[in-house]
Write a structure and sequence with these properties.
about 375 residues, alpha/beta, Rossmann fold, Cytochrome-c3 Hydrogenase, Chain A, domain 2, 5-stranded parallel beta sheet, two-stranded antiparallel sheet, about 10% strand, binds iron/sulfur cluster, binds FE3-S4 cluster
Amino acid sequence: MAKKRAVNLSGVPPGISRRDFIKFCSIMAAGMGLPPAFAPRIAAAITASKRPPVVWLSAQECTGCTETLLRTDHPAFADLILDLISLDYSETLNSGAGHQSEAWRKEIVSDNEGKFILVCEGSFPVKDGGIYCQIAGRPVVEILRETAPKAAAIIAIGSCASWGGVPSASPNPTGATAVDRIIVDRPVINIPGCPPNPYNFLSTVLYYVTFKKLPDLDSRGRPRFAYGRLIHENCERRPHFDAGRFAEQFGDDGHRKGWCLYKLGCKGPETFNNCPTLRYNDVGVWPVNVGHPCFGCSEQGVGFDEPLFSPARPTYITPPTQFAKARPDGGAGGSTLAAAGVGAVVGAAAVAAGVSLGKKDKDHGEE
Ligand code: SF4
Ligand code: F3S
């Protein structure tokens, strides 16, 4: 148990109320699978630390991962992230481009060697010497190889950087591949998703800033606090799955009643992510609760590899963690929790509670 201590919050980022800031730190603690007592420590790290410099490389991508970070609110996430880190180099946001941009990257890397966090967005083409994605006439894969050894930590954000994603889908004409296939001599933190939940990215950075070490990772390099459980374990439609009640077609009676989307191709049973508990857009939504099957966007070998509407391979079925069994009348006993719009706070806390109950990693089959 972390000791409670007084925290000087004079460094609360401008534009954010003290109340929102404390709430934000509590959400982050819960998101990392830590007890609420760690919130003051996170707050202290945020307010005391010199902002870690970040170099953000963009390869073959759609900018969706950057967009998801910059378009959140409550609290103003763009403000927060830009106050927490020093985003010194970003190919999407830089005002310069090409040779100007490269000169700037070299200067930032040289001034901050061993101190900066390298964030990579997009997959890296390696076919034909990597000529299919270049900056200032240099293959971006060369820039990655040059930059990564000088970074303090490396994060691959999104499914393209984590697994190859859309650009690597068959027949993969550019030889697009993941960051950890290129940088093999040091750990790469994978935050997959298309796009990933921005809170998972921020929690990872905050964990590093607070504890000066990487979070616990699974065998695929994902933070366990975010990717330790199957979507299927926390889905509010799970009671219908267990009761054998499935939507057969989009718009049919079962679909409108909120029944399980397995027969419409839901990949929740083979996808590890915290979407049903953390949710999106600060309004408590995620794909399955608005009626779309999960297509496994964050899972290697599932999203972008399996056909969209083919049935999942439910190899890792585990009991539901937070929803009661279905009622005989077709209702789902516990789903009111989700229907009430639990949002990020309760959702993140549920993840934390789930972690403390024990989790299963599909690669190791370990509890
Ligand atoms: Fe939810 Fe999909 Fe599992 Fe059905 S198959 S319970 S919709 S995650
Ligand atoms: Fe992606 Fe499935 Fe979550 S499609 S956003 S992993 S619900």
